[in-house]
Write a structure and sequence with these properties.
By secondary structure, the chain is of the alpha/beta class. The chain has 11 helices and 8 strands. It has a single domain, classed as 3-Layer(aba) Sandwich (Rossmann fold). 48% of the residues lie in helices and 13% in strands. It has an 8-stranded mixed sheet with strand order 1-4-3-2-5-6-8-7, sandwiched between helices. Helix 3 packs across helix 7. The chain binds S-adenosylmethionine. S-adenosylmethionine binds next to strand 3.
């Protein structure tokens, strides 16, 4: 069966590989040099050693290397979208036609639930996250899948260039399968019958949960309509039975205690603190006795990062489409879980290749 995929031509793939390498160079070599300049030149020459991110930023941001880093970060992001969107524009109509066939195929295996009149929550509705042109909701023709194709093409490139990915090619399910392993370690006796992936995006990782637990009912929910449409077609092309819902993870409408594993991958740092709190409450409402809630997100807590990294991350919050990187990690997650009623709660780091990820949730007694 034909499968939905982000399909760059050879030239486009070469350009995308160049952008990945450029971003890797900026994120590691240039940022590493920035740290050395800060430690070896700026701090020794300062009146007092900076103690806070704001003090470190005041010292660092005027330096020419910091300006070069900022410029390269910004322009490599522009290049990312230029190269990715070129593939999307060339392949969109064929992929949309394929998605249409897969979605309307008699005897299809899974389901797609769209909510007419649904208003996606901010910031997804109001922000071009990652500076993706038009954001996650871009629709220039009815049923437009271009935002989803571009997200699909960019996400692994973006993660890998930050040393936060598996090295996987677009479309791989490695991250979800890794999180399934974390769930197994944290709840070895749990055999989930119903799994919910909150903020499932374009569904690649959601498919991973179905491959890990083929007998479970696997549901993905996301507030970006183009994403769940694509996710549904992706699952159908793979011959996997999953259910995808357009909706708000903070107010899903699913019945109380209807899932025994609830997961998310990098959902919470793309929402406001108020929404994170609502998502925590909703997850606890939906999880059955014995079930596990396992959210996974960015590992950028200030106490674990040098001040220079805090400064560069906060620059990306202000200028590079990452509105909540620092706000999210400034939340006291252990306290938030307690306030949301969680028991057997955890808010820890889990090793993941060179970089760990932050995982938080709880197991309902
Ligand atoms: C960074 S993406 C991650 C997608 C996917 N989990 C992955 O690993 O690629 C975050 C996703 O969360 C979705 N999202 C953000 N806020 C949401 C909300 N309140 N309800 C449902 N989905 C939400 C976005 O539309 C986006 O698809």
């Amino acid at each position: 069966m034909e499968k939905i995929a982000f399909r760059p031509s050879r030239d486009e793939a070469a350009r995308q590989a160049f952008v990945g390498a450029l971003k890797g160079f900026v994120n590691f070599a240039v940022e590493g040099r920035l740290q050395a300049v800060y430690d070896e030149q700026l701090v020794p020459a300062a009146k007092a050693v900076p103690q806070t991110r704001a003090e470190a930023a005041a010292l660092l941001e005027p330096h020419p290397l910091a300006r070069f880093w900022a410029s390269m970060t910004y322009h490599s992001q522009n290049l990312l979208w230029q190269t990715i969107d070129a593939t999307t524009a060339r392949t969109r109509d064929a992929q949309m036609a394929l998605a249409e066939r897969l979605t309307n195929r008699p005897g299809k295996r899974g389901t797609l639930h769209l909510q007419p009149g649904f208003e996606p929550p901010a910031p997804v509705r109001t922000t071009e996250i990652h500076r993706q042109p038009g954001g996650y909701l871009r629709e220039t023709v009815p049923g437009d899948l271009s935002a989803a194709l571009s997200y699909m093409g960019s996400v692994d490139l973006y993660r890998n260039a930050k040393g936060m990915g598996t090295g996987a090619k677009p479309g791989a399910d490695d991250m979800g399968r890794w999180l399934a392993g974390v769930a197994r370690r944290r709840a070895p006796d749990l055999q989930p019958q119903a799994i919910l992936d909150m903020g499932c995006g374009t569904g690649e990782q959601t498919l991973g949960y179905k491959r890990e637990w083929p007998d479970a009912r696997v549901v993905g929910i996301d507030c970006a309509r183009p994403f769940v449409r694509l996710a549904h077609a992706l699952a159908e092309g793979e011959g996997l039975a999953l259910d995808f819902h357009e909706g708000d993870a903070a107010a899903t409408g699913f019945a109380d205690e209807s899932f025994d594993l609830i997961v998310s991958i990098i959902l919470c740092h793309e929402t406001s603190a108020a929404q994170v709190r609502a998502i925590l409450r909703e997850s606890w409402r939906l999880i059955r006795s014995g079930g596990l809630v396992l959210h996974m997100d960015v590992p950028y807590h200030p106490h674990r990062m040098p001040l220079v990294k805090q400064v560069t991350n906060h620059w990306q919050v202000r200028h590079n489409g990452e509105p909540f990187w620092t706000g999210f990690v400034e939340m006291d997650m252990a306290g938030e879980l307690q306030a949301a009623g969680y028991q057997a709660a955890f808010a820890d780091y889990e090793p993941f290749g060179a970089a760990p990820y932050f995982v938080f949730g709880g197991r309902k007694p």
